């Protein structure tokens, strides 16, 4: 099975259909990720099928719990190598996305990817979550904030919630048994004035908070 066919099978499980151009963008992204990974630490996962499942499909799994196919403003907190922000942008071009990361080398890589893939309305920003959360250009400006494997939920909540508009959503991608982590985060969530809407467990795990 060739690379495109393998990807299409996984996309079918999420009921996502991509154009040939979008699939080519994903493949180019994979190539750039692996090439850059040789000189800087972007990911420990490098085999094609593993990247498909654990990075690309995992990033897109948000579609199971949220209508991501709309023109909304999204912040990807601690994006790292661009997950989930870049896969979301490729698959759902109507999104306006800001990728925030604290390491300038990663931001430079993300800018190369954005340019090479010809992506529009997506920006990679170098900075710390706690600093940008005080910036009026970012605070309470986003319909959705996502994060993937960045920090504990209690810390993540404090980082991400300030970026949300009223009735915005914070969706945290988590793996494994995180019940204890969820319990620890409840105090921070209450203080921030948000509600846990639902905890959804499936092959690709997502938790949803509604702001204000």
Supply the key terms:
single chain, 212 residues, alpha/beta, Rossmann fold, 8 helices, 7 strands, 42% helix, 21% strand
Oligomer: single chain
CATH T-level topology: Rossmann fold
- Give the beta-strand count: 7
Tell me the number of helical segments per DSSP (H or I, 4 or more residues long): 8
What is the count of structural domains?
1
Main sheet overview: 7 strands, mixed
Mean pLDDT: 86
Q: Please indicate the percent range of residues in DSSP E strands (runs of 2 or more).
A: 15-25%
> Can you list the strand order of the major beta sheet?
3-2-1-4-5-7-6
Which segments are poorly predicted (pLDDT under 50) over 5 or more consecutive residues?
Answer: 204-209
Q: What is the gyration radius calculated from CA atoms?
A: 16 Å
Based on secondary structure, the structural category is alpha/beta
Distance between the termini: 48 Å
CATH superfamily: Vaccinia Virus protein VP39
Report helical residue fraction.
Answer: 40-55%
Q: Given the C-alpha coordinates, what overall shape results?
A: globular
CATH architecture: 3-Layer(aba) Sandwich
Provide the CATH top-level class: Alpha Beta
Topology order in helix (H) and strand (E) letters: HHHEHEHEHEHEHEE
């Amino acid at each position: 099975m060739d690379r495109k066919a393998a990807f299409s099978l996984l996309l079918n499980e999420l009921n996502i259909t991509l154009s040939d151009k979008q699939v080519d963008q994903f493949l180019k992204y994979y190539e750039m990720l692996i090439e850059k990974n040789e000189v800087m630490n972007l990911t420990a996962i490098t085999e094609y099928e593993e990247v498909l499942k654990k990075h690309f499909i995992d990033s897109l799994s948000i579609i199971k719990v949220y209508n991501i196919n709309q023109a909304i403003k999204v912040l990807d907190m601690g994006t790292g190598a661009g997950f989930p922000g870049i896969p979301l942008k490729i698959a759902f071009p109507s999104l306006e996305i800001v990728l925030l990361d604290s390491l300038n080398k990663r931001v430079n890589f993300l800018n190369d990817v954005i340019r090479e893939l010809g992506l529009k309305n997506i920006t990679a920003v170098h900075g710390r979550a706690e600093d940008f959360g005080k910036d009026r250009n970012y605070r309470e400006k986003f319909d959705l904030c996502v994060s993937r494997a960045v920090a504990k939920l209690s810390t993540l909540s404090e980082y991400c919630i300030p970026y949300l508009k009223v009735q915005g959503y914070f969706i945290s991608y988590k793996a494994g048994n995180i019940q204890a982590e969820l319990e620890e985060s409840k105090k921070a969530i209450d203080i921030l004035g948000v509600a846990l809407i639902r905890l959804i467990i499936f092959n690709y795990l997502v938790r949803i908070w509604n702001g204000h």
